[in-house]
Amino acid sequence: MSIQSPAKCEIRGVIRYLVWKEKPPFEIYNEVKTAYGDKAMNCTNVYKWCRKFKDGRTCVHDDQRSEGTARLLHMGGKRFSTDEEVKEKVEKWAKELAENYFEEGIKKLIPRYTTCIERNGDYVEK
Questions:
Q1: Residue 31 burial by CB count (10 A; 0-12/13-18/19+): exposed, middle or buried?
Q2: What letters, b where the CB count within 10 A reaches 16 and e where it falls short, cover 82-107?
Q3: Long-range Cβ pairs for the range 63-71 (8 Å, 24+)
Q4: Per-residue b/e over 35-65, b at no fewer than 16 CB within 10 Å?
Q5: CA distances from 118 to 50, 112, 126 (A)
Q6: pLDDT of 44-101, one tens digit each?
Q7: Which of 49, 107, 115, 119 is the most buried (most CB within 10 A)?
Q8: Farthest CA pair distance, the chain
Q9: Are the C-beta atoms of 89 and 75 separated by less than 8 Å?
Q10: Residues 8-32: pLDDT tens digits?
Q11: Dihedrals φ, ψ of 74, to 5°?
């Protein structure tokens, strides 16, 4: 039986405690997986939090982010700090697409969904 509906900070608290007990990350992951089952944090995140607590972090809660910088999007290696920057970049990218790009895509849908209907949904285009 596993613990149901854990909060992220609850699992992080368990990780922090086990790091304090000097348990290795693979044992900590196994403990978390045993206790929380399918609701457990994945291995990569357990190792990441082990490293953070080992490096001196004490807080189990998410870091606070200021308004407007909560969403960061990577596009072409650029990191954006505001929603407005993201909107401007996406709009510019969409305008630079060939005018018939979307029209061609929509035209391709018609034969695809027709084939899908004819085959009772048993159709995957490769």
A1: middle
A2: eeebbeeeeeeeeeeeeeeeeeeeee
A3: none
A4: bbeeebbeeebbbebbebbeeeeeebeeeee
A5: 53, 10, 17
A6: 999 999 999 999 999 998 876 554 444 446 445 667 778 888 888 888 877 777 667 7
A7: 49
A8: 62
A9: yes
A10: 889 999 999 999 999 999 999 999 9
A11: -100, 125
Written as six digits, the tokens of 110 are: 């018609």
What sign has the CA pseudo-torsion 100, 105, 106, 108? positive
Q: How far is CA 93 from the centre of its chain?
A: 24
